[in-house]
Amino acid sequence: MEPITFRQLREQMNGLNEQQLDSPVRWMGDERGGTVKVLHVYEEDMLNDDGQAIERSAFTEEEATDLKVAYPKGTPVLEVDL
Length: 82
Hints:
Layout: H1 6-13, H2 18-21, E1 26-29, E2 32-41, E3 46-49, E4 52-55, H3 61-65, E5 68-71, E6 76-80
Antiparallel strand pairs: 1-2, 2-6, 3-4, 3-5
């Protein structure tokens, strides 16, 4: 199954009724699930450091030049409970 975009999510949410819109946002996966806690919009580039996304400001300019941008500034991300 391909991931959906935030645009597709918004379009699908337009079909929800008022009661559904007032319910907690839930997620589910393979034998796991929970609720969405918050929507973050990254305020700076998140760099990939050994498989983790870390704020650009955590690095010196010299260190940052060697790292790839994992998520550019402005990327929306949902924080979930695990």
